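#lab-general

N.A. 3:47 PM
ok so I finally got the sequence cleaned up, no stray characters, all 217 residues accounted for. can someone with queue access submit it? mine expired

B.Y. 3:52 PM
send it over

N.A. 3:53 PM
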Amino acid sequence: MSTSPLLLAMLGDARLPSGGHTQSAGLEPALRAGLTPAGVPAYLRSRLRTVTRVEAGTAVVARAVAAGGGDLAEVEAAWAARTPSPALRANGRRLGRGYLRVLQTLWPGPVDARARTWSRPVVLGLLAHRAALAPADVARLVGYDDVQTATAALLKLEPQDPLLTAAWVNGLLPDIDEMAAQVARLRTPEQIPAHGAPLIERWAETHDTATERLFSA
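B.Y. 4:20 PM
back already:
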């Protein structure tokens, strides 16, 4: 099973009205805490191994549960248990509402009344089921979106040559593929990875109360 490359490109396009433009993938608080632009690729690799892997695994499992007619609220609970930061959970659910609009417009159909409280990876899993996205491809989408969100935010926070950040993304593509391959076979909420990222979580909490910022998370 494979996904249309054009469909994957559309869903990975930063111009998709999903709310991603309001995010920095945690980069803004990381820079405030002393991360330098040169350290961004390493920062993103760390995310791919931790918080992004949890989200990608959640999306893959949500896709499988939706395909089997199961209760996505159980997947949401498993994601929340693996996302200890209240700020990250709140942000994930804001993004979920954005993707819910995409789902209901492009792939309309019955949606659980609780869906407005679900996180981005859970809604993406339902979207992946409706759009016939392959499991590895929805995981790639999560990883690619995370990397592109941060590098796009860097151009506003610490202006760089856009080709430099494009080169960083290109260099991270094998990491995204590796992460996607690791989670593509997951099927149940219990299998979702539980990788902690205490520093990223602390930065998210600090950022959530900052009075001056460009991005919501």
